[in-house]
Q: What sequence folds into this?
């Protein structure tokens, strides 16, 4: 009798182990979508936002069809800071997302102003949630930053200093989390093509850029995702890939409105930008 009990216990233990391995494999292989610049009002100088509505509804519909693990929208959710009509339309469409798919908002300069103030930051937090936070999904430890505070902290120096201190704690948490990938999500790219490119409107100034990139390198960050440019761009700084994604809303270059599909397989991260009218039939991560 005891022999049979031992056999049953052994079989149950093996089933638990197999189930656990399957779970690990599942969380190691998945896809997520990176979007940017829904920017309601930009097509028509804040007069109306029908084109942004069509584009974002299409993006959410395709997300519901393809079923990624999550989506992250890298800033400029609206075009006019504090405009409640634009904010409400963004939130109305975002609420159409399948509840099983998590959405992560990132603040952009059109959400908190080019030079953020404490009042603008509070207003954003009231309507969209925190402007800096971390999240876990699968084997990713995501760190969301308010890049406007890095770009120009002049009117909110205390908030910028608090974020500078917080990001070090977040990176340490990521290091100790057991995650296989620490990723940064923000609005402004640190650079478009080259880590030593000159300062301009679409990147972070060199002095701040150098500090952050060196910090991220120490913590083995391998991907930084951003928007802001309304075109696709990318480059490398050591082991870090800077990925700048075109807009769901109005493009400013040759790239059509669309979003990026990111496939994660362990520590392998591959990604491709798709126009809204040329999305794949299915995701290629099983």
A:
């Amino acid at each position: 009798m005891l022999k049979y009990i031992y056999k049953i216990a052994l079989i149950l233990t093996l089933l638990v182990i197999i189930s656990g391995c399957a779970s690990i494999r599942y969380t190691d292989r998945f896809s997520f979508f990176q979007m940017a610049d829904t920017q309601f009002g930009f097509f028509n100088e804040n007069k109306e936002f029908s084109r942004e509505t069509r584009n974002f509804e299409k993006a959410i519909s395709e997300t519901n069809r393809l079923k990624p693990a999550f989506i992250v929208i890298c800033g400029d959710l609206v075009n006019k800071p504090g405009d409640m009509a634009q904010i409400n339309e963004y939130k109305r469409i975002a609420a159409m997302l399948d509840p099983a798919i998590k959405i992560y908002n990132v603040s952009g300069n059109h959400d908190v102003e080019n030079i953020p103030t404490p009042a603008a930051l509070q207003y954003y937090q009231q309507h969209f949630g925190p402007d800096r936070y971390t999240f876990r999904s699968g084997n990713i430890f995501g760190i969301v930053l308010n890049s406007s505070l890095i770009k120009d902290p002049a009117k909110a120096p205390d908030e910028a200093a608090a974020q500078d201190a917080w990001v070090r704690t977040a990176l340490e948490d990521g290091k100790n989390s057991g995650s296989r990938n620490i990723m940064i999500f923000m609005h402004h790219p640190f650079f478009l093509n080259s880590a030593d490119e000159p300062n301009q409107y679409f990147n972070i100034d060199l002095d701040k850029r150098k500090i952050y990139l060196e910090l991220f390198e120490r913590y083995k960050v391998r991907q930084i995702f951003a928007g802001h440019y309304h075109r696709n761009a990318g480059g490398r700084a050591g082991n870090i890939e800077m990925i700048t994604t075109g807009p769901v809303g109005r493009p400013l270059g040759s790239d059509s409105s669309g979003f990026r599909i990111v496939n994660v397989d362990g520590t392998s991260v591959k990604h491709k930008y798709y126009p809204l009218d040329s999305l794949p039939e299915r995701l290629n991560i099983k």
